[in-house]
Amino acid sequence: xxxxxxxxxxxxxxxxxxxxxxxxxxxxxxxxxxxxxxxxxxxxxxxxxxxxxxxxxxxxxxxxxxxxxxxxxxxxxxxxxxxxxxxxxxxxxxxxxxxxxxxxxxxxxxxxxxxxxxxxxxxxxxxxxxxxxxxxxxxxxxxxxxxxxxxxxxxxxxxxxxxxxxxxxxxxxxxxxxxxxxxxxxxxxxxxxxxxxxxxxxxxxxxxxxxxxxxxxxxxxxxxxxxxxxxxxxxxxxxxxxxxxxxxxxxxxxxxxxxxxxxxxxxxxxxxxxxxxxxxxxxxxxxxxxxxxxxxxxxxxxxxxxxxxxxxxxxxxxxxxxxxxxxxxxxxxxxxxxxxxxxxxxxxxxxxxxxxxxxxxxxxxxxxxxxxxxxxxxxxxxxxxxxxxxxxxxxxxxxxxxxxxxxxxxxxxxxxxxxxxxxxxxxxxxxxxxxxxxxxxxxxxxxxxxxxxxxxxxxxxxxxxxxxxxxxxxxxxxxxxxxxxxxxxxxxxxxxxxxxxxxx
Length: 504
Hints:
Blueprint: H1 7-22, H2 26-35, H3 48-58, H4 64-77, E1 78-79, H5 91-99, H6 109-121, H7 130-135, H8 139-148, H9 164-170, H10 179-191, E2 199-202, E3 209-210, H11 211-216, H12 222-225, H13 232-241, H14 249-255, H15 262-269, H16 278-283, H17 290-303, H18 307-315, H19 339-345, H20 349-357, H21 367-376, H22 380-389, H23 393-400, H24 404-410, H25 414-422, H26 444-450, H27 454-462, H28 478-484, H29 488-494
Parallel strand pairs: 1-2
Antiparallel strand pairs: 2-3
């Protein structure tokens, strides 16, 4: 899905497909045959409506009208992340811009310190600005402004064009702000008509950032730069009691990277995994169902060794036995593996034992699978035995998972890296380190450098890792990654290997 989608963009795609199909172009005919319901219209006279249906289905929508409805939803609820990128001249606007978590590249303590300093210099900046009053958690001023204009509770404004409650829950300028003030301001806004399910589609992307998303915080940049709200538990409970739907996909995504499960415990207490997905699912029918959201959480937990989360999900009725098919996550959609297969494959012994105790049947014997599993357990004797008993297993394992070395390095497993290298896995292969998938993202040495793991980096170099390779997303070398993450030890190791270093 493109950023900031518009209907004319999709109309052009459909017209292009129609012309290509009428011209008999092989790829266009293949797309139509694959996605148009039988009987397929005659290609030489393909109507535009048929091409529109195919385009809609390629983006995951059942029909062109549903794609159209999504575009209209983006027009109504979309938010442009470039808002707030530039300083504002008005102190109240500038305070909102600095105080709120925006899921942008400049989120972090430095910006929030500036917000505190600005409020200290201009303590009255909230007096006539409900968005700043909400961000500063000043309930008396919020109530006074609402008394004059109750409609402000639902009015977008400030530099970010957010509604006031959004500014309140995304505010991070002061970890010492009193909880009673935060809750009182939030109650005043809710009582005046603020929507507890309010949210925005950041840059038109289909997963809404809701009020709950802001309360729970976290995300790909970690809690240092994207922290939870200092009073997240009480504030989340207030929103949930007011009707916020607990099936919040962006919250689940942002919080899945760390093993802390307190957010799940609170959401389960308020109905996570039940219901129809709430108002956002009604607006965007391609969003995952509550059951699918939790199965994705299960897969991440199994792949990343989060045993407590697996037990928590199982205890709340999540299916821990069925293979991942149409409920697979984006990084491994429908690959047919079961949670137990994944746990055994990636050496999650505690999770595997738990699943077996739950009665999950073991998978059929598969030498290539068992060889990878033994490598991830760093079980050299079993690797050697399986390789001897099944000479074809190593080649089959490499065929299935060519980028597996990257996942092993991201998990900082030197023993596994050495065993995989011995089985012929390419130390310079590209793969993904965030999940065990084979997207051509980066190499194993990139992750060793970013983690500051000198021993693993040396091992990879000894095995033939090329320090000059650039990753496929940012165009950076392993040394660039070490510098970005400020890993002095791996910087010292890799800097002398950089092109031209010897002449410096």
